[in-house]
Amino acid sequence: MISSVHAADVKKDVVTECSKFYKVLFENDNTRVIQAKQGRGDICPMSFHANHFAIHNKAVEIKVTLPDGNTATFKIPEGTNSMVQENTFTAEIKSGQLDAIIIEYK
Known about the structure:
single chain, 106 residues, mainly beta, Jelly Rolls, 5-stranded antiparallel beta sheet, 4-stranded antiparallel beta sheet, 1 helix, globular
């Protein structure tokens, strides 16, 4: 597992930086619900991801690059749900498709 790198240096919101792939469905003072769709070869540039719960509707393989250059690749099966700690990273889809609902906690 990749260790957490807090976004002290880079705190660019994922929805702003990756507006082609991320769409806000709902937002209030406590949560933000995001639809994320990225295809093979798509890259979401270095951006901040708040603490969130992700519901993956399709299988996907994602290469994550942290600000310090460390990388990791995750294979996420269809139907997987996960809790993700806040972090800043670049996400590249290596295979499959990112099709997820993300619930961020503020």
